[in-house]
Amino acid sequence: MAGFAGKNRDLTETILKCCFQVINTLGSGFLESVYRNSLIVALTNQRLKVDAEQGFEVIFLEKRVGIFVPDLIVEDEVIVELKCCHNLSGEHQAQLFSSNENRNWVASEFWE
């Protein structure tokens, strides 16, 4: 896959291949939890470390203000946020980029 750069390029490509495997196999119409669980299976079959719904603190002005819980964290490097929708809204993108800024994660977008 072209277009990805940086230290997580290979990992991102593997994640996207697994996403395509899930959507091409299952099709559309399931709840997000079905796609999440299927993606966990596909990623672990690739021998990747996957943490599901592991929260981390959000700090603002040295104060704990909440907890962000992404759908998946792969190899302690890439956050995967699953959305069952036709298009990502501005709110979806803002949520992902906010979490990346707080943890210095690399953002990748995928939608069907």
Question: How does this model look, in words?
Answer:
The C terminus is likely disordered. The chain has one domain. It is globular, with a radius of gyration of 14 Å. The strands form two sheets. The chain has a three-stranded antiparallel sheet, covered by helices on one side. The two termini are 16 Å apart. It is built from three helices and five strands. The protein is α+β, with helices and mostly antiparallel strands and 112 residues long. Helix 1 crosses helix 2.
Kindly, what is the distance between the CA atoms of the first and last residues, rounded to a whole number of angstroms?
16 Å
Strand order of the largest sheet: 1-4-5
What is the tally of beta strands? 5
Please compute the radius of gyration using only Cα atoms.
Answer: 14 Å
Q: What fraction of residues sit in β-strands?
A: 15-25%
The helix/strand order is HHEEEEEH
In short:
By secondary structure, the protein is an alpha+beta fold.
Q: Keyphrases for this structure?
A:
112 residues; alpha+beta; 3-stranded antiparallel sheet; two-stranded antiparallel ribbon; 5 strands; globular
List the helices and strands and how they pair.
Elements: H1 9-26, H2 32-45, E1 50-52, E2 56-60, E3 63-68, E4 72-74, E5 78-80, H3 90-103
Antiparallel strand pairs: 1-4, 2-3, 4-5
